[in-house]
Predict the 3D structure of the following.
Amino acid sequence: MAKKTRKFKTEVQQLLDLVIHSLYSKKEIFLRELLSNASDAIDRARFESLTDAELVGDHDWKIKISVDEEARTLTISDNGIGMNADELDSNIGTIANSGTRAFLENLKSADKTSDAEFIGQFGVGFYASFMVADLVEVITLRAGENETAYRWRSKGDGQYTVEETERETSGSDIILHLREDEDEFLNDSRIRTVVGQYSNYITHPIVIDATRSEGEGDDAVEVSEEETLNSMKAIWKRDKKDVTKEEYKEFYSHISHDFNEPFETIHFSAEGATEFQALLFVPAQAPFDMYYREGHKGLQLYVKNVFITDNCKELIPEYLRFVKGVIDSSDLPLNVSREVLQDDVLMRRIRKSIVGKILGALKTRQKKKPDEYRTFFEIFGRVIKEGINSDFENADKLKDLLVFHSSKSEGQLTATLKEYVERMPEGQKEIYYLTAENLEAAQHSPLLETFKDKDYEVLFFVDPVDEWISQSLTQYGDKDIKPIDGGDLDLGAE
């Protein structure tokens, strides 16, 4: 076919301006999007090869990144499904017309199922290339149609050209001619950093040519070989029985920059109405920013192995802000830039499940190893108590996790509400507490005398947050919780 110049099929310039200037908060996102698209293309080829004899073969599936400093180009190549002329026109020539989405719709309409997860959903990620490139080329050959390859070119100015070209194997090359001020993406180390952050767990190898020296002196020669940049296998997607304690600790150190052993490791998969994988860590030492709410960072979020954010506050409440970890979901609906989660019932379900797992794990540790739990609560108890006034859904679970000093604890942080009730003498109907500036002031309060005479234990609220939570902490089970200086106490006839 002769070279043809065509206009995009929508108000493309306006949309391209949106993509380039507003849609993505960080320009390195373009590489994540292109690698995700390449991964999709390989997944489609693998899936279609199961039923199409034309595509069957011994494939070494991979995505390759190539840098040409002299030509100022960055190329992302895959050996996936590729595109023919019509698909180029419909998938790239029309903004927001995702080929992946159409493929999934075709699967559903044909009543087929697959475990394959396709990342692209909106068809705009490709156009993020224009954030860093003033010319983008696509050279592609459709699998099963080995006669003609096509070259697509555009400067993002409202039109594009398509012409026939040559490519030896099926797949696509995305060639970015970088702008003058985008030299950082000609740097191997920068490429490695971006891949490691955003695409480390894509399930196909992402490779780059690495050069090393062999031999010594005058006999030394430069040898180039492909180096894989991504690990491909997410630790949270592995069966927990196959993950060692050392691997958990190494991953925890990686995401938290804390090189101590975590206090608790929570690794689980949820199935059913909402499917996701979670790997959570409760630290043993308080992070330096635990009391800086404005610095609160949420959990890391992945959607189908692709990194979305390391600050997903929607998935965890503030009173658990010390928890570190990763959530990976196939179901979460993202907005068009993949960066902002849409408000959805799935988010609330995931959050509910996560919070339940964390509180359950802490309760188990409290029951099995109370001394270790009390040490933990001395560090994190003040933050956990914040949930009493904010998380009414989990109020009963949080009350069970609280530990206080008391008139019978001999200066130790040992009194839980459950233990208090179990120790109550016959005739005592209420739970009593005393608010004081510090433990010493509470222990020497003259208000305790009557309660000591009756052998009634009194909890000491000596944390600054205790008086605040007392507004909500008014009942435990069927027992009212009352201050001993409140005036309306049921102490018998006297």
